Amino acid sequence: MSLINRIRSRIAKLRRDEEGSIAVETLLMVPLMSWAMLSTLTYFDAYRAEAISHKAGLTIADMVSRETSTITPDYINGARGLLRFLTIDDNWPDLRITAFEWQQDRNRYRRIWSQERGPRTGLRTTDLAYMTDRLPILSDGEVAILVETWSAYSPPYSVGLGDFEMETFTVISPRFATQVCWDATPEDPEGLRC
Fold first, then answer.
1. 3-state SS, residue 114
2. Would you tell me how many other CB atoms lie within 10 Å of the CB of residue 143?
3. Is the dihedral of CA 109, 169, 146, 150 positive or negative?
C-alpha cells in the first residue's frame, strides 16, 4: 500500500470515527445551557420583584383610602416602614402620597397636600398638570389620592439585565370619607389641610 493510500485510509477512518464527539458537544452546549438557565432565573426573579412592588403599592394606597382620621407624619413614616417590609429587595423604598381634586372652573387638578419619604419632592399643582394623561377623569370637586412608590432592584445574576428601579402609580378614591386630610402636628388645628 502506498503512502498516499494509507493517508487516504486514515482520513476516511477519522471521518467515520465518532469517539469524543460527546465531549465536544458538551463543551459547546454547557455554556449556552448555563446562560439560558441563569437568564431564566434572573427574568423570573425580576417579574416576581415587580409583582411584589406593585402589590405593595396597592396595599399602601388601599390603607390610605380607608382612613377616616387625619394623616400625620408618623402615619407616613409607618406606611414607608410597611412598604419596606413588603418590598423585600429594597431596604429603603421611596414613597409619595398626594391628595388632589379636580377644579372644573379652572380645568385643572389641584394639589391639596403631598408628602414624601425619600429623596423625591412632594408634588405641586403644576406637577399634576404634566400627569393629566395618567390621572382619572373626576367630577368637579372630587378628591382622589395618588400613591407612588419606587424601589430599587438588583438582579441575582447579571445576564442581560442590570439594576433598575420599579415604580408604581396608584390613584384611588377615599372610601369612607369624602377626603383624607393631612395634619402636620395633631396638636395644632391650623396645620390641617383638607
1. strand
2. 18
3. negative
112: amino acid identity, one letter: I
Its domain, for residue 48, covers 20-193
Which residue type, as a one-letter code, is found at position 107? N
The number of distinct structural domains making up the chain is: 1
Location of C-alpha cell 415587580: 50
Put simply, whether the predicted model's pTM sits higher than 0.70 gets the answer yes
Helices (H), the chain: 3-16, 21-65, 73-86, 125-129
Asked if residue 3 belongs to a domain, the reply is no
Does residue 12 belong to any structural domain of this protein?
no
Q: What is the pLDDT of residues 20-45, one digit of tens each?
A: 666 777 778 888 898 899 999 998 99
State how far the Cα of 109 lies from the Cα of 102, in Å rounded to an integer: 5
Segment 172-190, tens digit of pLDDT: 999 988 888 888 776 665 5
